[in-house]
């Protein structure tokens, strides 16, 4: 065999190894994004499961706050039906605003604030909110790593060849969900 043949076979082997390593790295990054999304989904479901208990506890004290309770229920339904990060983020924004309102309502009911069930639910919500925050951060970090990997040369070529080139969407909170909710009881007789 000639030297050119060995060099050619060596070059083909190097290219094949490069493609396999790059492909496997991109698949790993993609799976990490999927796993991170699943973690957010688990925490959102956990929070959604807590909501009926919260509503029932608050109902006993705040019978005339039906609008607030209805908003929480609608937001919970939106999150439970979310299929994509964008849909989940929209439901998350609705729920965050509604929960802020419900906890603001609780401030005007000293006996509710002192109720052990309500305290336990509030603590459980705080823990869940922290878990959601960490899961969201991990997801967004994973999306950033994946999006960076598929944008860099020569990974972008390999990603394009194997159909892995679509960037993933970040889990973002709308600006309106960042505002502090003020409970307004001026319309209560």
Task: Provide a descriptive summary of the structure in words.
With 189 residues, the protein is an all-alpha fold. It has helices at residues 3-59, 66-80, 85-107, 110-114, 116-151, 155-161. α1 runs antiparallel to α2 (66-80) and α1 (3-59) runs antiparallel to α5. 24% of the residues are buried. Residues 180-189 have low confidence and may be disordered.
Question: Summarize this, please?
Answer:
The chain is mostly helical and 189 residues long. 76% of the residues lie in helices and 0% in strands.
Which CATH class applies here? Mainly Alpha
Record field, number of beta strands: 0
Mean pLDDT: 78
Please provide the ordered H/E string of secondary-structure elements: HHHHHH
Task: List low-pLDDT spans.
Answer: 180-189
Report the radius of gyration as a whole number of Å: 24 Å
Kindly report the name of the CATH homologous superfamily.
LemA-like domain
The tally of domains stands at 1
Number of helices: 6
Helix share bin: over 70%
Strand content: under 5%
- What is the architecture at the second tier of CATH? Up-down Bundle
């Amino acid at each position: 065999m000639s030297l050119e043949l060995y060099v050619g076979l060596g070059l083909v082997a190097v290219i094949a190894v490069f493609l396999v390593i790059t492909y496997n790295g991109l698949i790993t990054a993609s799976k990490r994004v999927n796993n991170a999304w699943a973690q957010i989904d688990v925490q959102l479901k956990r929070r959604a499961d807590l909501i009926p208990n919260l509503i029932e506890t608050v109902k006993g004290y705040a019978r005339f706050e039906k609008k607030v309770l209805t908003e929480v229920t609608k937001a919970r339904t939106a999150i439970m039906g979310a299929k994509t990060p964008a849909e989940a983020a929209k439901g998350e924004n609705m729920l965050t605003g509604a929960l802020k309102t419900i906890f603001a309502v609780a401030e005007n009911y000293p006996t509710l604030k002192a109720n052990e069930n309500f305290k336990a639910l509030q603590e459980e919500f705080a823990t869940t909110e922290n878990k959601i925050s960490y899961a969201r951060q991990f997801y967004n970090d994973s999306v950033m790593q994946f999006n960076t990997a598929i944008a860099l040369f020569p990974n972008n070529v390999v990603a394009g060849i194997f159909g892995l080139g679509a960037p993933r969407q970040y889990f973002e909170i709308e600006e309106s969900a960042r505002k502090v909710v003020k409970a307004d009881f001026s319309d209560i007789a």
